[in-house]
Sequence to fold (139 residues):
Amino acid sequence: MIKEPLTDAEVDALVEAATVARRNAKAPYSGFQVGAALLAVDGTTFGGCNVESASYGLTVCGERTAVFKAVSEGRRSFRAVAVVTGADEPTSPCGACRQVLWDQCGDIEVVMSTLNGKRERTTLGVLLPRAFELGGEDE
Ligand code: THU
Fold:
């Protein structure tokens, strides 16, 4: 279950933060620039963008950049993430990012937006049902 749903004004602000973060995207190989913004419960927002590697698999997505920035700055509780791309339709976070978001944020709101303002709102629990969680110890 998500915590308090975002107000419309909070959604606007988070999408704007992700749009700004997207300007720093470094995507020379795919040409697909992604911006993300993660809202912590204390009201702080952490932006992130994708950063691509010449060894393609080492690329880091925008969402994970935002999560790692926030966690490494001491945040442990979150409300929502926004993702902005230049695609025609809102872009949904990749599977790896869904897992990492779940690991660090649990069930938060997810706002996906195009640069033209076409938006969708959902939750991480909907995007990643039955997420992997470490259970008890082996043996
Ligand atoms: N990408 C993201 O930043 N987030 C996602 O959820 C999916 C994909 C990036 C990775 C790569 O730099 C580019 O988009 C094309 O896959």
In short: The two ends are 32 Å apart (CA to CA). Residues 27, 30, 32, 34, 50, 52, 59, 61-63, 93-94, 97 surround tetrahydrodeoxyuridine (CB under 6 Å).
